[in-house]
Amino acid sequence: MRVTSLARDAATTSTASENRTRPEGTPSARNTPKRARRRETLTAYALVAPALIGVVAFMVVPILVLCYLSFAKWDILLPMKFIGTANWEWALTSPTMWHSLGVTLLFVAIVVPLQVGVGLWLATLLTRALPGSTVFRTLLVLPWVSAPVVLGIVWNWIFDYGGVLDSVLGQHLGLLSNEAFALPTVAFVQAWTQIGYVSLFFMAGLSSIPNEVVEAARIDGATDRQIFWQVKFPLLRPTLFFVSVTGVIASFQAFDLVYTLSPNGGPGGSTDLIAARIYQQAIGQANIGQAATLALTLFVLLVAVTVIQNLVFSRRMNYDR
Asked: Among the four 74, 159, 191, 242, which has the fewest Cβ within 10 Å?
């Protein structure tokens, strides 16, 4: 045992003397941190690579393909032909395109405030733990998780001329066949499908507000209305920003539900949303170039609207709870 201890002490002394004789700036000592950082960087890129490949394959590449197709004429059957900026000139001067854009903006202006307002109101009720809240939460989420085409068929059966609503009221309203009511009716159904989604996020935001803040306001004499608008609502601004941005994007991209309720643009083109117009140009008229141009226009519009929303909410959002 004594011999082993002496040998170990000798080895330690030899290593220490070797470290003292080696300068701190030698290549081996200097490169060790760099090698460790390089190894960590390569490991990080390896872990991110699967997700990065998916983003490039399913987001970046399709956008680049759309950019190329927007300068070409192609009907899938015949060879592709480069036509320059003709598709963009058509998009900027076509009354059909501007009509679809106006209908889409009106549709978004109806859907987003409706689903956000009703969703916030329902969230305030559900967080109070009223009797039957659990069952109602489940029923509220069902439209969001259901297939849009199925929901469109059901609501078409209700609102169509001679449908369930007409039978109950005893008169023919034909909301989906009426040019004045077709778009509000479709917007109502679209908002109805998203209210449960919005309510879930508002419920999570309300539940994360500390009780101490609410109790302090109540001790200061604030009423329930004042507590909600002056205490809770300011703390919900990050949630409001998220549901507003996602609601705008979903409304601009609404297609399957709207097309099932009111196909081919509805009466007088009253429900001719830009997403349905893209489908009509690509499938109905076999004009891939014009469809790609409209798709890029929608993409640029969504980016612009999102940036504007971010600028508006960033001045007022407070993430500190």
From this structure: 242
